[in-house]
């Protein structure tokens, strides 16, 4: 025993014996949650009536999670750490609930689950029980920012949480199952995006328990040396824990390793904070190889269970049919010696409770894990000041996202001191025209920076990595711990994080029902480089379907905006940055395009969410013959161009022009909080006139949102119908019948009263389309008539 | 110079000088494609009129891709290799087109693009030009199985391609941008799933050109030693190529490295095939560090372009405004010395053409890259033989996917010799009840296998890894090279590959328009562990939205099936395995459930896609009061249970019962090839009676598919509305108003003629719901009345 060890009371056999008891207590409570609905302290011999009729839960990962939790508690107390626990194997829900209960947090949040026998009985019963709590670590679990149902995002979440939190350490347990996923595999590289001066530290713990649901894991079946190379290749200094001959020895080894790693983190941070950050450190990480289902039944029905995939969920089942299983369960639970762990009243023994940190140092009560508690409003400049001055509609050209970028530049600047705002993008930050933000900050990189690099710095606040998964995961972690952000993405490729969006939306929905979870900043997406302007990259880059995906989630948590120009985009952006607990999806163009609304008009339009554009309509004196509606910048352009054709060629045709910014206004008010009343909808769209709707996305989304509206039978939607290739911008609309000529033709067809005039006009429009096709195939760009078109209607 | 080098004519300076010329020819053709529409051989001084008005394309990665292609050509000739080229940076489209043209393949597939001056002019002009070809490597490119627009899947595709193709080598270029994505990061581990005895080899080439669109890449900014550790940690033997002092030296170094790697692959394979496969080999891989935009303009407008992100797309732009750029372009193109490369007629010099492989050895003409050419039908057992014998509807219980598993077991068995069928699953193979396949094959693992493992073998044909991305990518690669497969996935988590599905569906859609692309086997999904039976895992596992996502793609390539029981699932499965060029999505339950249709009835029902179940209806003698429709196994159960309640309590109510298996039948025939005619639809659903549709997924999908139908205004859909947690199976339906009691109540409400009876029944149903809630919160499982319910209507 070294001097350091001898002098450290938390490494003494006595302390570690208590720590082992603490671990046993957590294991006991975990098994109790999975199995029992009564007799929590096993005061009576275990009977079938004490056991839940349906056994749900995941034992396999649980003892490992408990082991880590107990040792982290020790380190928190020893070093006074500010620490959050991310359980990648969040399906091991009983572990986190058990520990949060042991440290006293759980009963503070849920007084009904008290620290006594009755509380323990309820704790057991509620787990995976109707009316109780979910089987996974969930928003309901104090201390959690990570669900762990869908695997892959633990390390990204942990990284997002430590950004701009220099004192925070996030211990992040990664299961060897999860380690096989793509998002997790790339998230090891998060260490190239953490700055030890201003950010906290992630302590990854790869829990190699060897098995998934039904088979071995990949990383447990490669040589230790190879695994070491892998972790070194990822840029870490790996430490290894293996089960020792005795439990005491395993505890001692773990305690020492945890100390070494914490001290290494402190060294790295102290050095960087004192001497500046010059070189990316090799952060420590732990590979912990312990058996799946550790301390559980070794064998059941003659086959191995501990250290096998068979312990993944419930090691003992069919208790009603197999009385010997009930016996095994009782033996198993008693093997933890509950009588040594809990008082007769069912409270954790004071000598064990001493091992838990106190107050906000308890991982279940760490305020970072309830980010809304820490959330500070952003300081926001007046977005009106970034407006494009507009003498009249269509009189100027601007790049919407570039204008938004100016606004975001100043948001960044004004919150630089608060250190609570970051931007995230997969290699598309400049491409998406947010360049001006680079005037006040840089792309963040903690790896080598060359003298020739521009806009790259160790203290940048732009998080750019070619992984939508990482951007999303980091941003989620950042938001969940009480900060703000915006994610800019190519529209087609945001589908890469469809499932991550799902999980975040579900998390938010659940949080709305948990009073102690304080609201967090919304997750804001800018989707640009959108379908209509992927004429250069072609078919693979054309997909507007993310919004279809988004509107499947609870209306309470999702918002979709399609601002048609820069000023509306500014208004929407300001709104998104102020909102809480939503996912805001903003779809906007980055290409030079006509501007339609003055700032005042834009604010009014965005506040309503949808409205009639009088200046484009000529039905003021009468009722319209047709409603031309649109949503999205390119459809708005084509719709207006069609209107100007029609008004030139058919001045008697009465057109009402409607633009929709907030897509959710189309839904009935009963379906979405933003939904227009039927009265408003009918007044805007009429109940009996044809509506020709030019839509940014797949056309049926508009039908889906409006099918209960009176005018729905008169509604005709044009949108993207999966036609595209590398071609001209205007041709993209032609291929999908969304261009001005097709729209004008459709409008004519929808107004039967036009009679004889119609045939002639239709022919002119078709000639235009032929002319277009011939022109682009000859010249490779759009006709001057299209390129130079301007809104000139008075 | 070593003896080996001296003796090898393909390592001679003369040969490598020619190889360099070949490379220059490819570079010249690539630049030409990006810029020119005329004057292809630069016979005249370059003028603006020769240049395309819109410059679209990606230069940065292109010279590297060309360099690799030229060296692989050399190796193919030297070793007589059967080789396919996967270009991860597929946006470098000009490279692949240039090389396929140089080797003569392109003109064979597209005779209009002939091997002469006029052909070269057309080759240049068509690139990224309306009516021409896309800017990326695409289905239009001979030799390609990979688009490369959405990054991340190159190595998974390459791996899928070599499975069961022992003689095939797939050279897989991975950009350092792509290397940052999650799917790519985990796909390095594909080497644990390749068996050198029966599979071919993947040769990964990590192309470190240092930059993404606008900034440095992560892997180019870590020390070489760390990168080496990373690749070793992934299990490879990495080789490194850096640009040498002279081009000649770089060529020599590359040629030698390629030889070493090919020889290493052969050694590994020869050893394993002779001595058996005992230990996972360290396959070779190459890290090639060459500048982005290599050989392009070094500096433009005073800033570096070569070896910088600025060469990502078009290094010289604004040619009209900046005449000096036009000069630079001409200099650049002339730097390749086209006069040395092409004859006056515009054909590649015969001395260079000699360097290309011939016939099917040309990578552009490798039949594996047009998998339909090699596709052999599966031998299929008669699926009827696996039927559950059914005396009457609801008289037996079965697990649908387990029955499907028996069928798949025998499909596997019958095609074992053909080696063209594999199953893919992310850690859920057994969970999804395909266990019986394990009787005839195993999970594949080329890493360590322990004596305690069961169902794991080096020659297994079940590909199980906890990565939906890998499963999807491998399967796509396997299918694209002419084989068959099935992917079983948890329904909620298939969203992880939403974007991969997009790309595959787009690929198939495009292939339908390319006559020389032969049809390939469909991509088949079994989605199980579905939303209604994720009562145990809870909210994070509940999402039926993948089918919404799928139906956004072209109707020609997507099919969605919701078989309600085992026999219908068998019929659908057989159909899917016989189909070509589709994505088939099959949603089916794995839990014990009632069986409804005999095999004969199932076949009839599936052939129609939707139908009236007479045995559940009582409107035979008259018109119905209500149509009870359903799709999906649990909704079918609840709908039938509601019918049986109603028929007991309200015998006078005339109910028609409709079940839908093929969701696409609901769409108008004009929208989808499977769509029912309006006449059929109206006859089935009526045009004037209320329709209560119990649906597996989000309810609005049914509205979206049917909004053009006459009866749509009478349609009321119940489905998943994002309500759920860990609870009982029946409670999942209650939370979403899809249970029998809610359905019966809704039916009553929809038939106003019921009058006074309605109130009483409604109360009874509400009492049932209260009883349910109380029961589950007390007992933790569903009421016996629900659990033991049986169809007893005569």
TrEMBL record, chains A, B:
Pfam families: XFP, XFP_C, XFP_N. It is an enzyme of class 4 (lyase). PROSITE patterns: PHOSPHOKETOLASE_1, PHOSPHOKETOLASE_2. Residues 590-791 form the Xylulose 5-phosphate/Fructose 6-phosphate phosphoketolase C-terminal domain. Gene3D superfamilies: 3.40.50.920, 3.40.50.970. The keyword RNA-binding does not apply. PANTHER family: PHOSPHOKETOLASE-RELATED. Its EC number is 4.1.2.-. The keyword Lyase applies. Residues 11-373 form the Xylulose 5-phosphate/Fructose 6-phosphate phosphoketolase N-terminal domain. Belongs to the XFP family. Its cofactor is thiamine diphosphate. NCBIfam families: PRK05261.1-1, PRK05261.1-2, PRK05261.1-4, PRK05261.1-6. Keywords: Lyase, Thiamine pyrophosphate. This is Probable phosphoketolase.
């Amino acid at each position: 025993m070294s001097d350091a060890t001898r002098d450290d009371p938390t490494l003494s056999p006595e302390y570690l014996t208590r720590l082992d008891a603490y671990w046993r207590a957590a294991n006991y409570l975990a098994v109790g949650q999975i199995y029992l609905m009564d007799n929590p302290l096993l005061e009576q011999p275990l009977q079938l009536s004490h056991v839940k009729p349906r056994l749900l839960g995941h034992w396999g990962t649980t003892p490992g999670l408990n082991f880590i939790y107990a040792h982290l508690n020790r380190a928190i107390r020893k070093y006074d750490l500010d620490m959050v626990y991310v359980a990648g194997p969040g399906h091991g829900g009983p572990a986190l609930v058990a520990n949060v209960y042991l440290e006293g947090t759980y009963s503070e949040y849920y007084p009904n689950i008290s620290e006594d026998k009755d509380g323990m009985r309820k704790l057991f019963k509620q787990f995976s029980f109707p009316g109780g709590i979910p089987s996974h670590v969930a928003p309901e679990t104090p201390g959690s920012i990570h669900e762990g149902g869908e695997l892959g995002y633990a390390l990204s979440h942990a990284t997002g949480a430590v950004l701009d939190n220099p004192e925070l350490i996030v211990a992040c347990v990664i299961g060897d199952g999860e380690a096989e996923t793509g998002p997790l595999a790339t998230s090891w590289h998060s260490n190239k995006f953490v700055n030890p001066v201003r950010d906290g530290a992630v302590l990854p713990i790869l829990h190699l328990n060897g098995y998934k649901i039904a088979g071995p894991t990949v990383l447990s079946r490669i040589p230790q040396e190879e695994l070491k190379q892998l972790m070194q290749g990822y840029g870490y200094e790996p430490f290894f824990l293996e089960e020792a001959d005795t439990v005491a020895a395993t505890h001692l080894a773990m305690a020492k390793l945890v100390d070494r790693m914490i001290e290494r983190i402190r060294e790295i941070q102290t050095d960087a904070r004192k001497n500046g950050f010059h070189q990316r450190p090799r952060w420590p990480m732990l590979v912990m190889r312990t058996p799946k289902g550790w301390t559980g039944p070794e064998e059941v029905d003659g086959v191995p269970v501990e250290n096998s995939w068979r312990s993944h969920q419930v090691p003992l089942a069919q208790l009603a049919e197999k009385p010997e299983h009930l016996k095994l369960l009782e033996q198993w639970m008693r093997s933890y010696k509950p009588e040594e762990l809990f008082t007769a009243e069912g409270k954790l023994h004071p000598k064990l409770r001493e091992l838990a940190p106190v107050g906000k140092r308890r991982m279940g009560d760490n305020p970072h894990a309830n980010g809304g508690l820490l959330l500070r409003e952003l300081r926001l400049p007046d977005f009106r000041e970034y407006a494009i001055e507009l003498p009249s509609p269509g009189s100027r050209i601007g790049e919407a996202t570039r204008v938004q970028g100016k606004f975001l530049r100043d948001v960044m600047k004004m919150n630089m001191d608060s250190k609570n705002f970051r931007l995230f993008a997969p290699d598309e930050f400049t491409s998406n025209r947010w360049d001006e933000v680079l005037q006040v900050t840089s792309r963040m990189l903690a790896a080598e920076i060359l003298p020739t690099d521009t806009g790259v710095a160790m203290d940048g606040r732009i998080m750019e990595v070619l992984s939508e998964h990482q951007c999303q995961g980091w941003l989620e972690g950042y938001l969940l711990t009480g900060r703000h952000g915006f994610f800019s993405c190519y529209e087609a490729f945001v589908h890469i994080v469809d499932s991550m969006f799902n999980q975040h939306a579900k998390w938010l929905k659940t949080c709305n029902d948990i009073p102690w979870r304080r609201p967090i900043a919304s997750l804001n997406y800018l989707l640009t480089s959108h379908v209509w302007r992927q004429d250069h990259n072609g078919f693979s880059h054309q997909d507007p379907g993310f919004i279809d995906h988004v509107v499947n989630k609870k209306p309470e948590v999702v918002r979709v905006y399609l601002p048609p120009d820069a000023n509306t985009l500014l208004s929407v952006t300001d709104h998104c940055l102020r909102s809480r607990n939503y996912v805001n999806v903003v779809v906007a163009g980055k290409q030079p395009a006509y501007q339609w609304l003055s700032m005042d008009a834009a604010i009014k339009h965005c506040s309503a969410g949808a409205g009639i554009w009088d200046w484009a309509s000529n039905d003021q004196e009468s009722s319209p013959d047709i409603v031309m509606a649109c949503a999205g910048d390119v459809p708005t352009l084509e719709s207006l161009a069609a209107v100007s054709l029609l008004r030139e060629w058919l001045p008697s045709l009465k057109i009402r022009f409607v633009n929709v910014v907030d897509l959710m206004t189309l839904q009935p008010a009963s379906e979405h909080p933003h939904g227009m009343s039927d009265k408003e909808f009918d007044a805007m769209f009429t109940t009996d006139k044809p509506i020709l709707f030019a839509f940014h996305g797949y056309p049926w989304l508009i039908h889906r949102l409006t099918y209960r509206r009176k005018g729905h039978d008169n509604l005709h939607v044009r949108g993207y119908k999966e036609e595209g290739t590398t071609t001209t911008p205007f041709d993209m609309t032609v291929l999908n019948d969304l261009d001005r000529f097709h729209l004008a033709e459709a409008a004519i067809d929808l107004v039967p009263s036009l009679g004889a005039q119609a045939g002639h006009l239709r022919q002119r429009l078709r000639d235009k389309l032929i002319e277009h096709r011939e022109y682009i195939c000859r010249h490779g760009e759009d006709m001057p008539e299209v390129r130079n078109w301007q809104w000139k209607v008075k």
